[in-house]
Every structure is written in structure tokens, then in C-alpha cells.
Amino acid sequence: MLTPFILVATLLAGTPPARDQTPTLPNEVTVILNSAEGTVSLIDRKTYAVVKSYPIGKEPHHLMMSPDNKELIVANASSNELVFLDPVTGIETHRIKRISDPYQLGFSPNGKWFLSISLRLDRVDIYNAKDFSLSKRIELGKTPSHVAFTQDSSMAFVTMQESNDIAAIDLNTQKVVWRLPVGRQPAGIYMTPDGKNLLVGVMGEDFFSVIDWRARKVVRTIKTGKGAHNFQSMGDGKRVLISNRVAGTVNIIQLSDYSITATIKVPNGPDDMELTSDGKELWVTSRWSHKVYVVDMANLQTKKIIPVGRSPHGIYFHSHAPRT
Questions:
Q1: pTM for the complete prediction?
Q2: Which of 145, 165, 212, 238 is deepest in the core (most CB within 10 A)?
């Protein structure tokens, strides 16, 4: 008769090894920030399947690449931290926990300054980009939201949603040098490739404002759809996309004359966008439906709807169209 020890050893010897239940990640993923539940969804770019979801921190809203194009940085607003991901696989590499309320974020084009836009705390923090040490804290109007820069890195422009204006910050002196009313609830802001004008999505209305930032005035308003929100370059220097949250649409804007050349239906609060490097697919986060929409740009129709987490916001994949 076998002793209990020998019996257990015999059974274990005949038991096949347990399989690793961790899914194998694809060669490239789409990274989705689910801001309301503090998670990241990783989507296989080829199969459109969510291959992994994991908690990342409180209120991850926006993300961007590091100046050396090696790391994807996620801003956790309520966790007061930056999370660094591998931009191809979406897996976390490390964190910096001393960044206060980073809602939106941006690097100056010369890579010298890192700006953390603190929507909840009504301020902008300017950090040295090399070591993320705080250089200047600037109190602003209510709910600063998005940021854009001049090409020479001398100026930064910040929209303020509840103050209905934008603030121009001199990065050399790190002081606000002027403010300009642009419409109710300004959100996304985009510097045109020629550096001449700023485009501002006026979320409380149905248009974007064209601003001659040197003259410090609004020169045109272009009607798009209700809840005009955020911009995304199409990578050819000639066109840019704008999402209209309330209207449930995305417009293609011709930069030569700011005409609307196409309207794409994307329901339930379209927000952030990413365009494939070949221009064939547009991916859009839908804030109110827990989904990501993939649009076939050949016919401007939705080809895939992907369920993700609550309030999907920031989106990124590595093989994207150029940012200019």
C-alpha cells in the first residue's frame, strides 16, 4: 500500500504542467484609456479583439509619446502620476508619482519643457522635461483643458473650458502674456502646419474658432457640429479632423480654406482619434457608449465597433499617420 506522500508524488508526476493563462500579445496593439474605471484596454490591431485589460490608476485621460519617441506616457489625473508604457505592446515600464493632477499633457517641440494641464486644480505646471522637476506653477482660469505650442517653442496656448478663453504663456519667462475669448467651453486646440493660426474646438457651441495668435484675435468661425471638441491631423499637412461630441460626428477640414469636405457619423460622444499610417482606418473613442469605432476611410462608414471600458478617452497606436 502506498503511503500518502508516495501517492501524492505519483499523482503529481503524471499531471501535465499547468498552461500559462496569460494571453500572448500581438505585434502591435491599440491602447485605450478608460478614464471612468481607471483601466487600459489593449486591442489587437489586426483582429480588433481586446487581448488584455488592466488597472492603471485613477482617471487616465490623455497620453502622448516622449520626445525621443520611445515611451508612451499616460497622465493619471487623480492619481497624480505619469505612467510610462511600451508604445508597441502597451505594457507598463515605470511610473513618476510627483506630477500633480496631469489631465492633459504636452512637450514643447524643442523637448525642453513638459506641461501638465491641471483641469481640476485650475492651473498649468511647467516641468523640466529631462528630469520632470517643477519649474513654474501658473494659476489660470477655470478648467484649463488642452494645449498647443508654437513651432519655435517660445509660446504655449491653453484652452480654459469654464472661462471661455485661451491663455498664451511665454515659455521663456513662464508667464501668461495675454488671454482671448474664443467662445463657450473651448476644448481642443491645434496649431496649423504653417504656424500661422490656432484652431480651437468650441465645445459649448457648434463651431471651431480660427485665431491669428500673433494679432491676438479670432479671424473666423467655422460651423461643424454641436460639441466641437478635439482635433487630429491627417498627416498630409493639408487636412485635419475634428470630433463633435454632441452631434456624434467627425468632420474632415481642408486647411487651405477651412472648408468641411466630409462628415463621418460616430455616435455617442466621439472624442479622441487615431489615424493609421496608410490613412485607411480612423479609430475613435466614444465616451458615452464604452466603445471604440473603427471607420473605413474609403467609404467613411463604420467597419468595426469594439466594446471597451467605461468612458474611453485617450487612444494610441504606434503605426499612426504623421502628427503634422
A1: 0.91
A2: 145
